[in-house]
Amino acid sequence: MDILSEAGSNRIKALINEQSPDAIWWAAGVGYGDPFWIMPDSAIDDMIESNVLNLARFCRTCAPSCLDGGPHLILTGSIAGVVDGVGAALYAGLKGFLIPFVRGQQNEYSRQGHNPKLSVLALQASRITGTKIIADAVEFIGRQSRAIEILIH
After folding, report:
1. Angle value at C-alpha 110, between 109 and 112, nearest 5 degrees
2. Tens digit of pLDDT for each residue in 6-24?
3. What domains are there in the chain, each with its CATH number?
4. Is 2 exposed, middle or buried (0-12, 13-18, 19+ CB in 10 A)?
5. Per the confidence metrics, is the pTM higher than 0.70?
6. Sheet containing strand 149-152, strands side by side
7. Cα–Cα distances in angstroms (integers) from residue 49 to residues 21, 46, 87, 113, in the given order
8. pLDDT digits (tens, 9 = 90+) for 123-152
């Protein structure tokens, strides 16, 4: 299923209604470690599409379900977006998009009188962090009644 197509978005919304999950976890993205000035245009486009456009489209689909007692939407980012010197320039910049984007959504929903459960989990590379720690963090966030941000360095 193409989760970013209209049919895919409708299917995701239907699954959320049918399954009533405790949490929805987004952990997708593309990164290249090459210096920005030598990256081909196709790599730049891939990174922007995956790390910004697809994330925004997925949030537009899922976030309205994550209000006022709905499931917790957990968006996974990278510490490269918040810790200096951790990632290549473009990757760090694109990952830096996540936290202000999520905070902005939280503010928009809060101003409308909603309790948005939209949270950020910023990690090192999964091979460094380890799947057990990631799974524990996702489970912990999913149990929270309000939005939180966790940085695992």
Report:
1. 65
2. 898 899 889 999 998 999 9
3. 33-152 (3.40.50.720)
4. exposed
5. yes
6. 23-26, 72-78, 118-123, 149-152
7. 27, 5, 18, 31
8. 887 677 778 888 899 999 999 999 999 888
